Amino acid sequence: MAKSFACKDIGMQCNFQTRANTEEELMQRIAAHAKKAHNMASIDAGTMSKVKAAIREV
After folding, report:
1. SS3 of 16, please?
2. CB within 10 Å: which end of the chain, N or C, has fewer?
3. CB 3 within 8 A of CB 51
4. What is the rounded distance in angstroms from the CA atom of residue 21 to the CA atom of residue 3?
């Protein structure tokens, strides 16, 4: 089953949404977006917890 994520689901004022076949691939896309759009060199532990909780199966 594919997985999806949207920045708005963790309270961000951002329209980014993505989906991937695996959580690993999804996390790579999320990390790349966070770096480019939100100037985050890395995702801190608190944000990572929110991200993982917001991942949905589609």
Report:
1. coil
2. N
3. no
4. 6
